[in-house]
Amino acid sequence: MPAKARIGILGASGYTGAELLRLLIRHPRLEIVLLTADRRAGQAMRDVFPQFSPYDLPHLVSIEGIDWAAAKLDLIFCALPHGTTQKVIKDLLTKAPATKVVDLSADFRLADPAAYARWYGHEHHAPELQSEAVYGLVEVYRRAIKTARLVANPGCYTTCAQLALLPLLKAKAIATDEIVIDAKSGMTGAGRAAKEAMLFSEVSEGFHAYGVGHHRHMAELDQELSRAAGREVIATFTPHLVPMNRGILSTIYVRGRRGRAPSELHALLATAYAREPFVHVLPFSETPQTRHVRGSNMTFIGVANDRVPGRAIVVSALDNLTKGASGQAVQNMNLMLGYPETMGIDQVALFP
Length: 352
Prior knowledge:
Structural class: alpha/beta
Low-confidence stretches: none
Strand order of the largest sheet: 3-2-1-4-5-7-6
Strand content: 15-25%
Shape: globular
Order of helices and strands: EHEHEHEHEHHEHEHEHEHEEHEEEH
Mean pLDDT: 94
Radius of gyration: 20 Å
Helix content: 25-40%
Number of helices: 12
């Protein structure tokens, strides 16, 4: 790679686009040369997010006017809505095949085109790229990510749950038919578009479950949990919306196999993540809080005894905009461009 890689963000006016920019501005090996936002085309980034006023950034442009070959981009972050991303990335990689892509939508996360059509209601528009895409959970697919041209950044809920469960499933340490994932997310997980149900007066002073029994992240969970276990795993997963800005907390209920005690499950997780820079396993019986990872690329995991012998409670927390989206995307970018994995994303959480 050159001294500084040429980077673009598609969909820079959304929350994940702004979080990407917040992280990339302090990255020493990048030059941000392209920012898109169709409805905001022609505006400065400071007009959309005033926190970027001090920085010299390119103005927002429409995707339709971009000459991908002439742009000579080393890597693009795609933070566009699900469904629209496929055609954009297909066009980009047809005209500029050397450009690498980290896609933050769900469009390339599912390896099976039939599963994508079933969960998203339409055929995939770029199945040849879907088969090429590498699932971007770094702690599992690090080697493949390093040589990938297209990386599918995982979902926020799925990242939080998978990091807590995958080592246990790989070790065959927990029953595969008794996994319950009770997950809560902050408001930014719903995106920045104006929605009546997201108004302050609609969501404050309470929280609620949604996507009950059929949430699209279930397909992603089924795929990755089953890969880890070597057999079909269908976990019970229920998301909830909490009136806070950032954060995901997943409380996961599991049963140890063959007499595995919760303390043994904790030891397995601690060993699995001993060398991982962005996953921290707390001492046994301690559980994390979302405020302890806010604004960081960290995932905190805790394990505690359930009152029923043989059952354990595993709690995982991350920032949905950072490790759950943009921070993980930068982590993937660092691997793809040959930079140190932690470069630009090693900040400590904001507290209080």
